[in-house]
Structure formats: structure tokens, C-alpha cells
Design goal:
The structure is a single chain. The chain has 326 residues and is α/β, with parallel strands linked by helices. The protein has 15 helices and eleven strands. Strand 3 and strand 4 form a beta hairpin. The chain starts with a strand and ends with a helix.
Length: 326
């Protein structure tokens, strides 16, 4: 039987502990009960805290521990849940957990972090020069603090050597499904997903993230162009004409945008248009062709290709997942 330890700490997201605990504990059980078959538990799951005492999650719920870190000799899989409280405060108050991760890694334990829990893995140095992901909303602080990590927040799940990372607060069920498939195969994983009524094999965070269209800067020219584009994005816009409108050369306009926003004007315009299309898909029942024209595109295939590149979904898939129920 595969032995799993879920580490717990004050300020953790409760569902990232209890949810993944349920998935592993019920793998081989829930589906078999539905099918009137003998229950076969596949994982032994325990919750461990620094001293074996209970912890308080960010929502106020207290969770009991099964054991302390010192009582864990060897585990097959170690799960690090989401940090719900201020991240840096939690890291600074959990030095023993960070050392525990290092020790288990040296023992060849497979370690899996969820969402902001991956900050613990990075703080322990376990992600240096490895592929990783985290919640898209915390990527900037992650990149600044851990420049040696090959961060790819577009990915929902990454795996490098013996380290798994999942992005997003509720990506623990994606992580659980991946690990069930790894140890017991696709059939058991899909049975578990069906019994919990959850989607399996989501691949990307793109469709959930807010597009980072701009960033703070002090370039008045770029700000004026941004304001104009946000009011006129649906028009046919030629870069030469845009530069002339603001009395600069095209080369100067591109250079100033790259310096201020780290993107050229045409990519900035694309981001505005795709964000506008997303909002229309979420909030209206307008036809796709009408939305495409409203945001400044005339070629359906180009629009669909660009939308998929930016969100990871086709426009219709995006609407099915995120639209308001009229």
C-alpha cells in the first residue's frame, strides 16, 4: 500500500488538506461501492504537523494531526498543501517543515506541492533548476524570490525528477488524479474522478488567470497610448498611424512600449481585445462572430487561434466553462 503524508501548518487552506486526503483515502473505495464491488483501499494517508498537535487553517477550522514530522521515517509521497495566510509570514514560521522537506527529498520521497504550497518547496531549494508551477496570481513574487526555478504558470501540473507541482488553490484534485494514475494506472484514476464527479486531465491555468495587460510605469507617452487603445481597440489600427497620432516614429513607439510594459504595442492591443472577448463570452449570449467583430477582428480562424493561444481554450469551450447562466 502506498504511504502518503499530508503536511499541515497554521494558515493552510483547509480543503487542500482534507480534499486530497479524501481523494487518496477513497481511491479504490468509492467507485467499488457504486459498482457493488469489494472495497479495496489503495493508499494509507496521514496528516503530520511539526509537533503532532492540531493546526488552525486560514478559514478558522482546526485539524487534528495523526503524527509529528519526527515520527515519519519514510513516506512514498509527501503532499504540501496551499498556503492561505500571508505567504512570507508562513514560510518564516515553519523552518522545521522546510528542513523536513529537505530530509524527505534526500530519502527519495516523491514530493508534491499544491498552489502556493510550492513556495515551501522552493524555499527548501528543491525546485532549483527544475520545472515548476504555482498559482498564477503569485507568479511575480515567486520569480523574484526564486530566480533559479524554471517557473511555468501556464501549466496546471509540472513534474521534474521526484517533484510534482500543481497550480491553483483547488488543483489538489488534479494533482491527486495524476498521482493515482502514476501508481495505479489510468483506469483507477478515471474511476476515482467519476466517483467524485470531477474533470480529469486539465492542463492549463490560462483560462483562469487574469490577463496582465499592463504594469506600473512612469512613461506619459505610453500611458496616453494605452488610454487611447483601451477606448478604440475595436477599430482597425495600423502601427504607423498610431505613431503618427502621437507625434512619434514607429520605432520610438515600439521602444517606449517595450521599455515601459515589456511588450510591443501590437501585443498590448491583442491582449486588450482578447480580454474584451473573454468578458463578452462570460457576460453575454452574443454570437461568436458578433463578439469577434466587436473586439476588432474580422478573420474567424485568426481570432480562434489567438484566443486559444492566450486562454488555452477555444471561444466556445471558454463560454461553456465560464459564461453566466441566463
Amino acid at each position: 500500500m502506498i504511504k502518503i503524508v499530508v503536511v499541515a501548518f497554521n494558515g493552510a487552506l483547509a480543503s487542500a488538506i482534507t480534499g486530497i486526503f479524501d481523494i487518496f483515502a477513497m481511491a479504490g473505495a468509492s467507485w467499488n461501492r457504486i459498482q457493488n464491488k469489494d472495497v479495496q483501499r489503495l493508499f494509507e494517508v496521514r496528516i503530520a504537523t511539526e509537533d503532532g498537535e492540531s493546526i488552525q487553517c486560514i478559514n478558522g477550522i482546526r485539524l487534528q494531526a495523526d503524527c509529528s514530522f519526527d515520527e515519519i521515517d519514510q513516506a512514498d509521497i509527501l503532499i504540501v498543501p496551499t498556503i492561505g495566510a500571508p505567504i512570507l509570514d508562513v514560510l518564516s514560521s515553519n523552518a522545521k517543515l522546510i528542513q523536513f522537506l529537505k530530509n524527505q527529498y534526500e530519502k527519495q520521497c516523491l514530493i508534491a506541492g499544491n498552489c502556493t504550497g510550492n513556495f515551501f518547496l522552493a524555499e527548501a531549494g528543491l525546485l532549483d533548476h527544475k520545472q515548476a508551477t504555482t498559482h498564477w496570481g503569485f507568479q511575480h513574487i515567486f520569480r523574484e524570490r526564486y530566480p533559479q526555478v524554471k517557473l511555468n504558470v501556464d501549466q496546471l501540473i509540472t513534474y521534474d525528477l521526484q517533484i510534482y507541482c500543481a497550480g491553483g488553490g483547488l488543483a489538489w484534485f488534479d494533482l491527486g488524479m495524476h498521482l493515482i494514475e502514476r501508481f495505479y494506472g489510468f483506469e483507477i484514476a478515471i474511476q476515482t474522478a467519476k466517483s467524485f464527479v470531477i474533470d480529469y486531465r486539465r492542463d492549463s491555468q490560462l483560462s483562469y488567470s487574469l490577463m496582465k495587460i499592463g504594469q506600473p510605469h512612469h512613461d506619459e507617452l505610453v500611458q496616453k497610448v494605452q488610454d487611447w487603445l483601451e477606448q478604440n481597440f475595436e477599430k482597425e489600427i495600423v502601427l504607423d498611424d498610431l505613431a503618427e497620432l502621437f507625434n512619434v516614429t514607429k520605432r520610438t513607439l515600439i521602444r517606449r512600449f517595450n521599455s515601459a510594459l515589456d511588450v510591443p504595442p501590437n501585443q498590448y492591443l491583442q491582449a486588450i481585445r482578447i480580454e474584451a472577448a473573454r468578458k463578452r463570452l462570460e457576460e453575454t449570449d452574443h454570437a461568436l462572430d458578433l463578439i469577434m467583430q466587436d473586439v476588432g477582428y474580422s478573420d474567424p480562424s485568426s481570432f480562434r487561434r489567438l484566443f486559444h493561444k492566450k486562454t488555452g481554450l477555444t471561444p466556445l469551450e471558454y463560454r461553456r466553462r465560464f459564461s453566466r447562466r441566463f
